[in-house]
Amino acid sequence: MGLPVILDCDPGHDDAFAIMLAAAHPAIDLLAITTVAGNQTLAKTTLNARRVCTAAGIKGVPIAAGRDRALHGIAPVAAGIHGESGLDGPDFGEPVVPLDPRGALALTRDTLLAHPVPVTLVPTGPLTNVAALLLAHPELAPRIERIVLMGGSTERGNTTPAAEFNMFCDPEAADIVFSSGLPVTMVGLNASHQALATTEVVARFAALGTPLARICTDLLTFFADRYHQVFGFPVPPLHDPLTVAHLIAPQVVRTVPAAVAVELAGLHTRGATVVDLHGVTGRPPNADVAVEVDADAFWDLILDAVRALGSGPPH
């Protein structure tokens, strides 16, 4: 079996590709999917996880709903980027993949306890669920191999000038994760902005000709339009699946060790990740931080996953 993983997400166009890559690649053993409020409300992100799994034929992976707000308040949603459904663009229809009744915290706890080896957590939305788990069950820390997250940046933000969306939604949760003492890998905007869904990339999806590939094409087309409208990007980045790609092939996303702090109180900088790439603070590194992406190899992994899900038996 592959590397055991729990994917914690807020689908979200890029989360959808993270789900597909994690389910399709033999290097990953996707044990569970948990959802959190972020790109849209919890009800919508949970429905979207079920929609993606239904469309991709992903069966046997439990899906559970987690926190519907930040640790200390209600988080914003990103309807301006992901649309009112959180996955605007394709026509998904009604999902047939069920929802696990346990909830994200219980599902994660049960999965960590049941698995014979420690499990890697891959959060691609706000870190509320992961922080809630660490607060409620500190005894489970030895059951966590590492945390590979999408969020933050070594440079600037995308929700405020300083803060990336996932960090901005719940800075206190992010601070708990980075201060946990667990191995953390941060894949931030500085890396994901190197993984651009160019017109050539979208054409490769369209050329696959499967129903799932058409959904992917529609997702990327909508995402491109919104990124152009909101940020002026000629083509959009695809953030979240870089976490899974790094686990599959570490050379696709190169990292360096660094001390990372999350700003909690700054008037203009709340939610910013302060990344000490040059060791000027003297603080020891508490994370591996993504700095460079092999975009061609990344897109090959994504295309192969969509091809596999579109042509093989349900996973």
TrEMBL record:
Domain Inosine/uridine-preferring nucleoside hydrolase: 5-300
GO molecular function, one term: hydrolase activity
Keywords: Glycosidase, Hydrolase
Entries under PANTHER family matching the protein: INOSINE-URIDINE PREFERRING NUCLEOSIDE HYDROLASE (PTHR12304), URIDINE NUCLEOSIDASE (PTHR12304:SF4)
Origin superkingdom: Bacteria
Coiled-coil positions: none
Stored InterPro entries: Inosine/uridine_hydrolase_dom, IUNH, Ribo_hydro-like
Protein's name according to its UniProt entry: Nucleoside hydrolase
Species for this entry: Streptomyces monticola
